[in-house]
Design brief:
This protein is of the alpha+beta class. It has 4 domains: 66 residues, DNA Methylphosphotriester Repair Domain (3-Layer(aba) Sandwich), CATH 3.40.10.10; 106 residues, Arc Repressor Mutant, subunit A; 116 residues, Endonuclease III, domain 1; 75 residues, no CATH class. Helix content is 45%, strand content 10%. The strands form 3 sheets. It has a 5-stranded antiparallel beta sheet. A hairpin with a 4-residue loop joins strand 1 and strand 2. Helix 13 crosses helix 24 and helix 14 packs antiparallel against helix 17. It is globular, with a radius of gyration of 23 Å. The two termini are 26 Å apart.
């Protein structure tokens, strides 16, 4: 990303939350780096350096600010990456891949050489893969030291370090204080459960997101209650529950989880962020969608906590109502899910894994109200995921993955696009054959709909969400001038450059995006 100093400084002076996490500011005199929304006194331009990532700032010798806490800043959506490989690698590193194995093993998993992976990450993020992973581990550890009462030893391992000694050494080296010293600075208030926060860029339509998830909640596994999304979760031998609710005043989501999930917190937080689409930049998306998003600029695309779970739900939802699909999903969970105890009576099962369903025969799924064709589809995709021939996690090649999905029995383009939108977190998926989309656009021909929707690329997933939401209002006129986009496809690539201050056209776009 090109960082123009004058433009970045104007954003810093304004403390504009839309740019939180897009870049960081490092102060030369204090050797501290901050978020753009930091409430500290704004330093002079000559005393600051701007970095596109926290890892690059730390690699430059700067420590994270204890006031604005850079570890809470939202990240960037994968479409922002110049290199698709860098986006895939970042997703895997966020999930703790380099805590499990080395860079060469990660490269092998991605089908490239270790040398090429290092070159891609250094070009995109300005640091090596190890430095990127270390920064993420340290920032997570800093968050846990500040927000929880977990012992330092547990925090070290939960953050992805293989030894407490290495954790203490690197923490002291980077932040010029040891973990115990940082903990003494935090509030002494105890919390009954593990708590952490993730930031997002406003506006954020949390109520709309909750409504979508509530309508499709799987009985026994998911629950929307009292303004929170609650679910069970399992990672290997670790299982428990978590809840997500909004703190609108702080532009954050509060994640509460059982202590049993502390060792896998890195993965839990990463999946919560994807599910809630916290890395989206609504101002950029609105600039491209134009009038389509007017009044709903904070709409997010619901992601997937588990990609396989969304794929299973997509199969069950074919040619039946949403309520019926939830009922069928709940029956599978009750029969094949692992029982679990939680503080919520409604949540009593862990969702069955692909491996569990892959071991079934068609007759095992009989008598549940699922058609024979759907049963064959469920077993086919379960075996594909369990064998490793199909991955339903973000960062995959969307076209290749969609083709693999459509090669399975019972999977068409609608299902493949839905899985791409939610499980693969692909922002440019578009369900052109969906009856709701056709009704919203008042169009019927697939070819014409696809051609028309090109104006919303690369954010067609968001366009689809807006079209669904618009069904409560008057149907849209596809020939209306109001539906023409405001921004361009590559607006996101140069969002922080001189155009932000020198281009009147761009200023108008941003003003419209603000609503």
């Amino acid at each position: 990303m090109t960082l123009n100093r004058d433009s970045c400084y104007e954003v810093l002076r304004a403390r504009d939350p839309r740019f939180d996490g897009v870049f960081f500011v490092a102060v030369k005199s204090t050797k501290i780096y901050c978020r753009t929304v930091c409430t500290a006194k704004t330093p002079m331009l000559k005393n600051v350096t701007f970095y596109s990532t926290a890892a690059a700032a730390e690699n430059g010798g700067y420590r994270p600010c204890l006031r604005c806490r850079p570890e809470l800043a939202p990240g960037n959506a994968s479409v922002d990456a110049v290199s698709r490989l860098a986006a895939i690698a970042l997703n895997r590193i966020e999930d703790g891949a380099l805590s499990e194995f080395g860079v060469d093993e990660l490269a092998l998993e991605m089908g490239i050489s270790g040398r090429h992976l290092r070159r891609v990450i250094e070009s995109e993020f300005g640091v090596s893969p190890i430095q990127l992973a270390q920064t993420q581990r340290l920032l997570l550890a800093k968050r846990l030291l500040t927000d929880t009462n977990l012992p330092v030893t547990e925090i070290a391992f939960a953050s992805g370090f293989s030894s407490v000694r290495r954790f203490n050494s690197l923490f002291q080296e980077r932040y010029n204080l040891n973990p115990t010293q940082l903990r003494k600075r935090r509030s002494s208030q105890d919390a009954p459960f593990l708590m952490c926060e993730v930031s997002y860029r406003p506006p954020f339509d949390f109520d709309g997101l909750l409504a979508f998830l509530s309508y499709r909640a799987c009985p026994g596994v998911e629950l929307v209650q009292d303004g929170a999304y609650i679910r069970t979760a399992a990672f290997g031998k670790h299982s428990g529950w978590l809840s997500i609710r909004q703190n609108a005043q702080k532009n954050t989501l509060s994640i509460q989880l059982s202590n049993s999930l502390a060792p896998v917190l890195l993965s839990v937080v990463a999946r919560c962020k994807r599910l809630m689409d916290t890395q989206a930049d609504p101002s950029i998306i609105a600039a491209t969608l134009g009038e389509l998003s007017k009044g709903r600029e904070g709409v997010r695309v619901p992601g997937a906590f588990y990609g396989f779970e969304v794929a299973l739900r997509a199969i069950l939802g074919q040619q039946v109502s949403v309520k019926a699909a939830s009922t069928l999903h709940g029956r599978i969970v009750q029969k094949f899910g692992v029982p679990i105890e939680t503080p919520f009576p409604e949540l009593n099962r862990l969702a069955p894994s692909a491996e569990t369903l892959a071991a079934l025969e068609p007759e095992d799924l009989g008598g549940m109200g699922i058609t024979g064709a759907r049963i064959n589809s469920i077993i086919a995709i379960s075996r594909a995921v369990a064998s490793g021939s199909l991955s339903l996690e973000p960062g995959q090649d969307v076209e290749q993955t969609s083709n693999k999905i459509k090669a399975l029995p019972g999977f068409g383009d609608w299902t493949a696009q839905y899985i791409a939108m939610r499980a693969l977190a692909w922002p440019d998926a578009f369900l052109h054959s969906d009856l709701g989309i056709k009704k919203a656009l008042n169009m019927t021909k697939d070819k014409e709909i696809l051609q028309y929707a090109e104006r919303w690329s690369p954010w067609r997933s968001y366009a689809g969400m807006h079209l669904w939401r618009s069904l409560d209002a008057k149907p849209l006129d596809a020939n209306s001038e109001d539906l023409k986009p405001v921004g361009a496809k590559r607006f996101v690539a140069n969002v922080i450059d001189e155009k932000l201050t020198s281009s009147n056209a761009t200023k108008k776009k941003l003003a419209r995006a603000k609503g």
